[in-house]
Amino acid sequence: MTAADIDAVSEVYREVLEPSYISFSELGEGKAETPDRLTGRAAAIFRDQLVSLWQSHERGFFVCKAGSQVIGFSLASLRQTEAGHIECWLDDVGVLHRWRRHGVARQLIEHVLRWGRQAGAKYFLIESGWQNAGAHAFFESLGFRPLSTVFWHPSTDLEPV
């Protein structure tokens, strides 16, 4: 990915973004207000993140093009764990609706796996919204397996202690 691709990648993100996409990172980054409601600024926040992070050596930004058009993207990051090894997170993947089921996402994720292995990643992680069953099945077809479940509770509904 180059700086010239940022707007096109942001448009792919805008097209694929829907409430089933929401996981804890969307909440933490301000892209979602609740597990089923995106903010009006989600796409703008995503674009701002691309601009600020795309040259980082710990981040991988990949695009798939048909001709000169960006039709899909994947974003990844490397993190050193407390145990001392490197893990690779598949932070995001998106493919324009009309290009789905053409192997684009598979190619993008396979590229992330190669990139992470070259960097010495011990394993790969993906977080996904709990309602995103289609994505879960796809990730499992690539060898990913469920690891944990994150529970959410809004603080406004908590009773005083």
Give a short overview:
This protein has 161 residues and is α+β, with helices and mostly antiparallel strands. It has one domain (3-143): Gcn5-related N-acetyltransferase (GNAT) (Aminopeptidase), CATH 3.40.630.
Description:
The protein has 161 residues and is of the alpha+beta class. It has a single domain, classed as 3-Layer(aba) Sandwich (Aminopeptidase), CATH 3.40.630.30. Helices cover 32% and strands 25% of the residues. It contains 5 helices and 6 strands, in the order ααββαβββαβα. Strands 3-4-5-6 form a 4-stranded mixed beta sheet. Strand 1 and strand 2 form a beta hairpin. The mean pLDDT is 92.
Number of domains: 1
Q: What is the number of helices? A: 5
CATH topology: Aminopeptidase
User: What structural class do you assign from the helix and strand content?
Assistant: alpha+beta
**Order of helical and strand elements:** HHEEHEEEHEH
- How many whole angstroms does the radius of gyration measure? 16 Å
Counted beta strands = 6
What would you call the shape? Answer: globular
Roughly what fraction of the amino acids lie in strands? 25-35%
**Uncertain runs:** none
User: What would you give as the CATH superfamily?
Assistant: Gcn5-related N-acetyltransferase (GNAT)
- Main beta sheet, described? 4 strands, mixed
Q: Order of strands across the widest beta sheet?
A: 3-4-5-6
* First-last Cα distance: 49 Å
